[in-house]
Each structure stands twice: as structure tokens, then as C-alpha cells.
Amino acid sequence: MTPAARVQAAIELLDETIEAAKREGAPADRLIAKYFKQRRYAGSKDRRAVRELVYRAIRHCGEMPKTGRAAMLGLANSDETLKMLFTGEGHGPKPIGENEVAAEPGTAPSWLMEELAKSGISGEAAQALLGRAPLDIRVNTLKAERDGLVLPEPGEILAAPQAVRLPAGTSVEQWEEYRSGKIEVQDHGSQLACMAAAAKPGETVIDLCAGAGGKTLSLAAAMQNEGRLIASDTDRGRLSKLAPRAERAGAGIIEPKLMNPGAEMDALEEFHAGADLVLVDAPCSGTGTWRRKPEAKWRLTPAQLAKYGELQDMLLDIASKLTKPGGRIAFITCSLLDAEGADRVAAFLERNPGWSAEEADIPLGTPRAKGLRLDPFQHDTDGFFVAILRSA
């Protein structure tokens, strides 16, 4: 592909990304993979270059642009080399019209920027949400220890006890250490959030929103494969991915439990007031993960944000029924909005006067109301809110 043809390919993919954001369709990375699966002639350099252009344009635009071309024109206004490729030659984009409108630069839609600012995220902290995410791994202590493990490539030792940072793009899935379950890919912030939960050997622990089990595996390692670890979710597809991951990791105490939406307690009735720890890694807007999915900023609406808050309240109430007297809830969201963090904890404590919030014991984090916040700017992690709630 010529450089101009790469720009045109990026424009087409941006059009697809914008439409997908409007209708809650596939994420950008999946659209890019599908696009090139249908265009086998494109080489690896072409794929990397087009992918880079797509994500650069997404990060450059605050409001959702009307078209992929408008998004790319907005990027070209700050890159003269890119602008020179709008000639219409070599399968490239047609020349720029005199009255064409380019997308304005920005970080996120204005309403969302206001919500972030009210939550204490603005300026450089807001811009950092759209940086480039690193590649972090967790050494699985069921099979290895960070101090004694020699990896094919050296990495940076991080604050979490078993965390290592590697160069972005490292193909760890090809390593024997990954295939044998000695390491797992997990963001440093996610590892710290699991550390805050402080799961212990012999406890009864419920991962209420386990998904594909990334945090479940971390809990199993902390428990040293001793106790009961229930991995529950309402998504059969995501939960089905846990079993092979658990087998590879040697996590033998995990018990998958599929729940029906709206009837979660029916599946978990045997654990009523019986759990030492309930991890609520609640569905949320994902504002803390924009470094990995920058187009997510275009998918969120005020109404959706309100629905996430209602869902988080419901999950916390379920968790409180499952927690034994003196037990605890670890409430986690990968969001930097108070509406999905500090506000939810405050509302829970108001509904449950016998409960209290405790300080999370982790080496990084900034206090935020009754919890801790991790963010890309201050801690170079994905964004998280973490709160530890203790039953009377």
C-alpha cells in the first residue's frame, strides 16, 4: 500500500468505528482485524501503519466526528506530511475541499470532560487518559515467583508484588512461561486492585462479576489454592473462557457459577451471609481504560452513565447479602468518574449504616472520598477506583 492508500484505509476504518460507536457495535481493534482479514494483500507494515493512523485520529478528536474523513482532516491539520497525501492519487484520499470541515481536537465530548473535571480529572490528568498503555504481566505464584523467574526479555519491576512491565507489543502469548501458566497479562492497576482485596488462604471468596476471570486468577494465587473461590457472572460466553485459563494457571479452587440477570441470588443462595470476601469488579463506563479503547469516549451517554450507577448499586446490595458478619466487599470500577466510585460508596454506606469503609493497603493510589484512585497520569496504570467495605 502507498502512504496515501494507508490514509484512505484509515478513513474507511474510522467511518466504521464511528458507526459502531453509535450503535454499540464492535470495538475498533476488532473492526481493524476484520478489515485486513478481507485484504490479504496488505503486509504487516501496512497493517501497523493504518492501525496507528486510526488510533491517532481517535485520540485527536474530542467530540465524535461526523465522518472518518473529518477525523483524519483534523489530524492532518496538525501534521503537514499527512495533509500532503490528500491528492486523490494512488488509491489515496481525494484533495481537500475549500470548505471542508475538519474535526476539532480535544480529549473527550464536552459533557464527559465536565464530569471528569467534577471528579478531579482535568488538564494533564485528562490528557493522560488517551496515552499509550504499557504491557504488564503478573507472575502466577501458584507456579513461579517473580524473583526466581527468568523471562525471554527483561522487564521493569513494578510496585505490585508480582508485576513486571514489558515493552508494548511484546508477544508474551508465544512464550513458554505464558503457555505453562507461569505468567498472565494483567494491568498493574488491576493487580493492585486485587491486592487491595487481600484474599487469604482458606477463605470463602466470591468474584461477583468474574467475566473471563482475570481478577479471579489473581485471587486464586493470593489464596494459594486453599479455600473456596466462586467465579460468577451472567455472561455465559465470557465465563466459559475461564476454565481453560484456570487449568493453565493451576487454579484448582475456582468454581464457575452462571447467574440469571435479575435473579443472581438464586444461583448464590448457598452463600448467603457466608462469604469472607466479595469482589465487585462492577461493569462501568471504562473511562480508566481509554488508553486501550480510546473510542469508548464516544460510546458513553449521560443516560448510560446513570444506568451503570444503578447497576453498581444493585451489585453492592447483592454483595452485602453474601458477606458474613465481619466480612468485606472489595468494590472496584475501571472508571475515574465519581458517579461510578466515590458516589456509589457513599450511597451504599447511607443505605447500610452498619458498614464502614477501610483504607486499602496497597503501595500506590490517591485517596478519593472513602476509597483510593489509580490513574494513568499519577501512577501509569489503567484508571481504577477501589474501596474496601467492612460489614458490622
Task: Explain the overall architecture.
With 392 residues, the chain is an alpha/beta fold. The protein has three domains: 3-106; 135-185, Alpha-Beta Plaits (2-Layer Sandwich), CATH 3.30.70; 188-390, Vaccinia Virus protein VP39 (Rossmann fold). Helices cover 38% and strands 16% of the residues. It is built from 16 helices and 13 strands. A hairpin with a 5-residue loop joins strand 2 (156-157) and strand 3. The mean pLDDT is 95.
Task: Classify the fold: give the CATH topology of the largest domain.
Answer: Rossmann fold
Fraction of helical residues: 25-40%
CATH architecture of the largest domain: 3-Layer(aba) Sandwich
Q: Which stretches are low in confidence, meaning pLDDT under 50 for 5 or more residues running?
A: none
Quaternary state of this entry equals single chain
State which percent range the strand residues make up.
Answer: 15-25%
Question: What is the domain tally?
Answer: 3
Question: CATH top level of the largest domain?
Answer: Alpha Beta
Give the SSE order as H and E letters: HHHHHHHEEEHEHEHEHHEHEHEHEEEHE
Query: What's the overall average pLDDT, rounded?
Result: 95
Q: Which superfamily, in CATH terms, is the homologous superfamily of the largest domain?
A: Vaccinia Virus protein VP39
What does the overall shape look like?
globular
> In this structure, how is the largest beta sheet organized?
9 strands, mixed
The CA-CA distance between the termini, in Å, is 65 Å
Based on CA atoms alone, the radius of gyration comes out at: 22 Å
The number of distinct β-strands equals 13
